[in-house]
Write a structure and sequence with these properties.
By secondary structure, this protein is of the alpha+beta class. Helix content is 39%, strand content 22%.
């Protein structure tokens, strides 16, 4: 019998890294995992930053924990790779050291840079018509959001010239970690595309000089582009001693979460649609060509699979809304719930019971939350409308409204926005009738059923839906080592575990609430802008940094 192959993958999220040990044989099997958190620094001016050293420290600690828990000999690890948050900006010097904190995909400070660089002259969808058309022609997308990486890069250039002078390379999150592991400066194709200065045209794939010239990017700052399945280096002696791994272990490019979560979900065939709900959330459909809907901020992004794209619509605060509910609506109810459950009052028991409590509450409230509707825009919104001023709100609260309705309304609000994504994608492509649902949100059967009811489609889940990014990265290593012919094999190796069918009895309720949900932004656009401006000018000064810590 053939000996199994062991690989380690890193799922690098917004609030923590999950390190996973996989056995690759006839199937990909998770054998051990460990999670370590780090901080997201949210600044009063719209900044959202992270400390790269904290990513590395979390990786080292969780790697050693996985090796200790599994008893795995580090010499048996054949390769490592990544599934990572995307559209971060990590500017490093010649030694690979950051010149400043990393700017998260959530950072929205670069309003003036966007305005100067794109939002001027005759415009379509907020972008200069001539630059928009050139960008669509070359990249298949447009850097029309204040959160797009190029504007973060330009913000540092404008506001921190001394730091900018020290820049050797512009990397994304996993690329910094690859550099830390191997000493190599690289950028995988999907990360390069996400910078929106990448030429997608057949025979011209690579960094676009035209785009760099148009947007003012120094091409010397751009790293060589590699495929997700390419071996990009080997672990150095220094990195190996810190991680607890063997020097010389192969490191493969990996991919962004938007690329590899679909692979780990088994959603790899043309037309397959998956929905992800982690800290952020999205709807993604596999297509074979570049497609863009600039007016709705939806585009087909380059995926990990060669010659495939993922038609992608993102909500930055999907699971983050559920975390907000946990912390601010449900937590003060937990003492009563704990008494009912008779659990030990350890932190773990509290949080386990807290999620149980939320699921119980949600299941007991009628569909439609008795008319209460929540908008999940806790950090602005990108799609199908771009507005950093948009905020979450509860609509239609009455004297009879209780906290339980509010808790369910948040889950429904996230699902309504995902339905909006599906309908927006349907304007350009055909999405699948059955949806693969993955991420931490898919762990709850109650949430899965609400999603099926809200979108009116069958929903499938997979085993360990919270680990699908890491599974996708493991498949990357398997292909890189020659164990699998292509990433398409993931569809065979990741079967459906459960299926949820929409309940026709609640369709009229959800259709009614959804119609109202869609109108809430339009009706409150001016109010969002006015309220945000008022807050900035009249609120009392607060601390320079607020920390959001997660695990």
């Amino acid at each position: 019998m053939k000996e199994p192959t062991y690989v380690i993958t890193y799922d690098v999220g917004t609030t923590g890294v999950k390190t996973c040990l996989f056995e690759i044989g006839e199937v990909v099997r998770l054998t051990a995992a460990a999670m370590r958190g780090y901080e997201l620094y949210v600044l009063p001016d719209g900044g959202a930053e992270q400390e790269p050293a904290e990513w590395w420290e979390a990786m080292c600690a969780s790697t050693r924990e996985v090796l200790d828990a599994s008893g795995m000999d580090p010499t048996r690890i054949s390769g490592v790779s990544f599934c990572s948050q995307m559209q971060g900006v990590v500017l490093v010097d010649k030694d690979g050291e950051p010149v400043r904190r990393a700017m998260s995909y959530m950072d929205q400070r670069a309003r003036e840079e966007l305005k100067k660089g794109l939002a001027h002259g005759p415009q379509i969808a907020g972008a200069n018509v001539f630059k928009l058309l050139k960008s669509l022609q070359i990249t298949g997308a447009v850097a029309a959001s204040v959160k797009d990486p190029v504007w973060k890069y330009k913000w540092v250039q404008a506001h921190e010239p001394e730091n900018f002078k020290r820049v050797h390379k512009w990397l994304d999150v996993k690329e910094f970690l690859i550099c830390k592991m191997t000493g190599e400066f690289v950028m995988t194709q999907d990360s390069a595309f996400a910078a929106l200065i990448y030429d997608i045209r057949k025979g011209k794939e690579g960094w676009s000089r035209e785009m760099c010239d148009m947007l003012g990017v120094n091409m010397n700052h751009l790293a060589p582009i590699k495929q997700s399945t390419d071996k990009v280096g080997e672990i150095t002696e220094k990195a190996a001693s810190e991680l607890g791994l063997k020097a010389g272990t192969a490191v493969f490019g990996g991919g962004g979460d938007a690329s590899l979560i679909g692979v780990g979900a088994g959603s790899t065939a043309l037309g397959d649609t998956h929905i992800y709900c982690g800290t952020s959330g999205w709807v993604s459909t596999v297509v074979d060509k570049s497609i863009v809907d600039a007016s709705a901020m939806v585009a087909a992004i380059v995926g990990a699979q060669p010659e495939r794209f993922n038609y992608f619509a993102e909500l930055e605060t999907a699971g983050k809304c559920l975390e907000w509910v946990k912390d601010h609506l449900a937590l003060d109810e937990i003492d009563i719930y704990l008494e009912k459950k008779h659990v030990a009052e350890s932190q773990e028991a509290v949080y386990t019971s807290l999620y149980d409590y939320m699921a119980k509450v949600i299941s007991e409230v009628p569909a439609g939350s008795n008319g209460v509707i929540f908008t999940p825009w806790l950090h602005g919104n990108r799609c199908p409308f771009e507005d950093p001023n948009a905020r979450g709100m509860f609509f239609n609260i009455s004297l009879e409204t209780g906290k339980t309705e509010l808790i369910r309304a948040v889950t429904e609000g996230v699902c309504f926005h995902l339905r909006w994504f599906l309908e927006t994608e349907e304007k350009k492509i055909k999405t699948s009738d059955t949806i693969r649902f993955v991420g931490g949100g898919a762990l709850s059967d109650v949430t899965c059923q609400i999603l099926a009811d809200c979108i009116g489609r069958k929903v499938e889940t997979v085993d360990s839906p919270q680990n699908v990014g890491a599974v996708g990265a493991a498949v990357v290593v398997a292909v890189g080592l020659g164990l699998l012919p292509s990433l398409d094999e993931a569809k065979r190796m990741v079967p459906a575990k459960k299926t949820f069918t929409p309940n026709p009895a609640v369709k009229p309720i959800y259709d009614r609430n959804y119609a109202v949900f869609q109108e809430l932004y339009k009706a409150n656009k001016k109010n969002f802008a006015a309220s945000t401006a008022n807050f900035k000018t009249k609120s009392a000064p607060g601390p320079a940094v607020r920390k959001l810590t997660g695990a």
